[in-house]
Amino acid sequence: MQEEIHSPRGNTKKQKLFDVASLQQGYFTAQQAVRAGFSYRMHSHYKQSGQWLEIDRGVFRLAQFPNSPDEDHVRWSLWSRDRKGEPQAVFSHDSALAIHGLSDIMPSKIHLTVPSGFRKRTPKGCVIHKGRVSPDEKEQREGFFVTTPLRTIIDSAESSLSVDYLQQAIEEACDKGMFQTIDIISAQMSEKAKGKITALLKNVESVKGNDL
Q1: Which residues contact 128 (CB under 8 A, 6 or more apart)?
Q2: What is the pLDDT of residues 24-49, one digit of tens each?
Q3: Of 27, 41, 98, 119, whose CB neighbour count within 10 A is largest?
Q4: Please, what is the Cα angle at 144 between 126 and 28, to 5 degrees?
Q5: Cα–Cα distance measured from residue 191 to residue 212, given in angstroms and rounded to the nearest whole number
Q6: C-alpha–C-alpha distance, residues 107 and 111, integer Å
Q7: Do 107 and 94 meet the contact criterion of CB atoms below 8 Å apart?
Q8: What are the boundaries of each domain within the chain?
Q9: What confidence tier does 202 reach under pLDDT thresholds 50, 70, 90?
C-alpha cells in the first residue's frame, strides 16, 4: 500500500514548496525553495534538522516524501537544469526503452539527450547525446521528460543497439498500439536507420499485410 502524503497546514511557505516538490516526486531545487519563500541562509537549518535531504548541488528532497521506483529520473532531470532552473535533458535511447517497457534491455547507464549548447560535464554512469527533441517528440512524466516511443525507436536504430533488442522493441510497440506502421515508415531518419527499421518491420507479425 502506498504511503499517504500529507501536505503542510498553516504554513504558506512550506505549502508552496510542497506543491512544487509533489510534482517532482519530492525533489526540488534551491532556486525553487527561494521562490517558495525560503532564503538561501535558511537552507542550512532545514538540512541540519533533517527535513531536507541534499541529493546533489542545489538539489534537495523532502525527507518525509514517500520513495518511488523512478524518482532517480527526477534527480537527473534537475541536474540538467540551465541558469534559469529549466531542465534541459530528456531521457532517451536505452533509458527511454526501459521507461516505456520496450524490450528486455536493462541499461547499465543513464541515457539523456540534451541541446547542442549543453556544457555540463558528463557524470559517471551517464551517456549524453546532443540533439534537438521537439515538443511532439517527448512525453512529460512526473518530474521528467522522456522521448516518445516513436522517437525512441528511431534513436535506437541510429545507435549501436543490438538488432535483437531493436526488433523486440518494435514488435512490442506495435503490439501495444504506441504508433502505427505508417508513422515510423514516414518519419525522418537517416538512410541507415530507415533500412534497418524497414527490414525489421517485415518480421513483425502485427504488421503483416501492410505495404512497406
Answers
A1: 112, 113, 114, 118, 122
A2: 999 999 999 999 999 999 999 999 99
A3: 27
A4: 95
A5: 15
A6: 8
A7: yes
A8: 12-62, 71-207
A9: confident
Q: Which residues contact 18 (CB under 8 A, 6 or more apart)?
A: 7, 8, 62
- Quick one: cell of 86? 529549466
Report yes or no: 192 and 202 within 8 Å, Cβ to Cβ: no
Q: What pLDDT sits at residue 81?
A: 95
At 1, which amino acid appears?
M
- Picking from 109, 46, 119, the residue whose alpha carbon sits closest to that of residue 81 is 119
- Cα separation of 126 and 110, whole Å? 5
| Cβ(104)–Cβ(165) below 8 Å | yes
Angle in degrees, CA 162, 144, 17, rounded to 5? 160
- pLDDT confidence bin for 11, thresholds 50/70/90: confident
What does the pLDDT read at residue 72? 93
Could you report the per-residue pLDDT of 85-108, keeping only the tens digit for each? 999 999 999 999 999 999 999 999
Cell 518511488 -> residue: 68
Cα 102 to Cα 131: distance, rounded to the nearest angstrom: 22
Task: Please give the backbone phi and psi of residue 147, each rounded to the nearest 5 degrees, phi first.
Answer: -65, 150
Length of the chain: 212
Question: What are the residues whose beta carbons fall under 8 Å from the beta carbon of 167, sequence distance 6 or more?
Answer: 200, 203, 204
